[in-house]
Design brief:
CATH architecture of the largest domain: 3-Layer(aba) Sandwich
Structural class: alpha/beta
Number of helices: 21
Strand content: 5-15%
CATH topology of the largest domain: D-Maltodextrin-Binding Protein, domain 2
Strand order of the largest sheet: 2-1-3-12-6
Largest sheet: 5 strands, mixed
Distance between the termini: 42 Å
Radius of gyration: 22 Å
Length: 413
């Protein structure tokens, strides 16, 4: 009997473990907003019911959390489990042999048959071995609008970017910020990707993200993307620099702003505020122009414990299995605002926005890769620098910015 089979035989995944074998697992993540905290509580309570203990290690902000998490693992102070975005962030740690191999668990439970789209599990796979468990499907390709803001000001609620842009001056005259933006780097990068998919179209988006096509980067369609981002710079308030994403979401919820371009996790903030999709707020996938979604998301990795600690590895495997169980998938994702990675769960209680997302993902042609899935960390860093500078610096012209973009794509991997 190998180690894996011995560990699984010693316990039932959702059963109660013997007190003597109970393990405290420190779990690091960057889910700290109201909606996110409510969602992660679902996971923590489910794990605690097994007899083990979830020790919460929340770190505010993914940009802060990633280097701290990587430093701890590489420095010999691993946590029991950690969140990363579904992508290549942990690739170096895996190749250094610092992550617990989940392959036998994945094969036993048939992860390849239940995780969809398949590229999410592919992002967890290095050299044919599986090292993480995807827990949700997130997409940045959404615009969230406060219906009351438009209705109270005698304006039609926009159904696409063009209508939103046309109504922006009228909102500004009423003292309402048209577009709520958080100026953190990752938010500006996510907005840029949303504009690429919406204004540039699916074909251009895939050519650039997947094929690293220089001609697509030079194209008139890409010019339209830069022009739309330049226009969006005029729709924000002066306080956007450094603003947290959930603070920008709350501007929309409170009626201080008309809309926000943000990932589907924003739904968690609307939910904890008691707002109802289709009544209090609307959602526009692909800015209402090109209803496609990228399929990024979150995954959990399990750093190898320091020293020979089979009881810790056993608890890691139990948590990995639990995170992909039907009940946790449904309860967590309904609270988080994301979509489950399992295609065999009941989502009858999903709201209208979540159902829009489910419908879009039914067609494989509507599924876009996220930047984290297709570019190396170095290329991601270069793109981030460009998008942040372009949004923050009105003196950086569309022409110059696009030329810099072309050079990045030319050498990207």
């Amino acid at each position: 009997m190998n180690l894996f089979k011995g560990l699984l035989a010693a316990t039932t995944i959702l059963g109660t473990v013997n007190v003597a074998s109970a393990v405290e697992l420190e779990v690091t993540h960057w889910w700290t907003s109201g909606g996110e905290a409510a969602a992660v509580k679902v996971m923590a309570e489910a794990f605690d019911k097994t007899g083990h203990k979830w020790v919460d290690g929340a770190i505010a902000g993914g940009g802060n959390a990633r280097p701290m998490i990587i430093s701890r693992i590489g420095g010999g102070d691993p946590m029991g489990a950690t969140q990363f975005a579904t992508g290549r962030d942990a690739e170096d740690l895996i190749r250094a042999g610092l992550m617990t191999d989940l392959t036998e668990l994945a094969e036993k439970e048939g992860w390849k048959d239940i995780v969809r789209p398949s590229k999410l599990l592919d992002s967890c796979t290095i050299d044919g071995r599986i090292y993480c468990v995807p827990v949700n499907i997130h997409s940045f390709q959404w615009m969230w609008l406060n219906r009351k803001v438009y209705e109270d000001n005698g304006l039609k609620v926009p159904t696409n970017w063009a209508e939103f842009a046309a109504a922006a001056p009228a909102l500004k005259e009423k003292g309402v910020t048209p577009l709520a933006v958080g100026g953190e780097n990752w938010q500006l990068v996510g907005m840029a990707g949303t504009f690429m998919a919406a204004m540039g179209g699916s074909e251009m988006y895939k050519k650039i993200y997947i094929e690293k096509d220089v001609e697509a980067a030079k194209s008139p369609e890409m010019t339209k993307v830069f022009e739309a981002i330049a226009a969006s710079r005029t729709m924000v308030d002066k306080g956007y620099v450094g603003r947290a994403w959930n603070d920008a979401t709350n501007m929309v919820i409170a009626g201080k702003a008309g809309a926000q371009i943000m990932g589907d996790w924003a739904q968690g903030e609307f939910a904890v505020s008691g707002k109802v999709a289709g009544v209090d707020y609307d959602c526009l996938p692909g800015l209402g122009v090109n209803p496609v979604l990228d399929t990024g998301g979150d995954a959990f990795f399990f750093p190898k414990p320091k020293g020979d600690k089979p009881e810790v590895v056993k608890a890691q495997l139990e948590l990995a299995s639990l995170l992909l169980s039907k009940q946790v998938q449904v309860d967590f994702n309904l609270m988080k605002g994301s979509l489950p990675v399992r295609g065999d769960v009941d989502l009858n209680t999903a709201n209208t926005c979540m159902k829009k997302g489910i419908k879009i993902l039914e067609n494989p042609d509507n599924v876009m890769p996220s930047q984290e899935q297709t570019f190396t960390p170095d290329a991601q860093g270069q793109l981030e620098d460009l998008w942040v500078e372009f949004f923050n610096n009105p003196d950086l012209s569309v022409e110059v910015a696009q030329k810099r973009f072309v050079e990045i794509i030319k050498y990207a991997e």
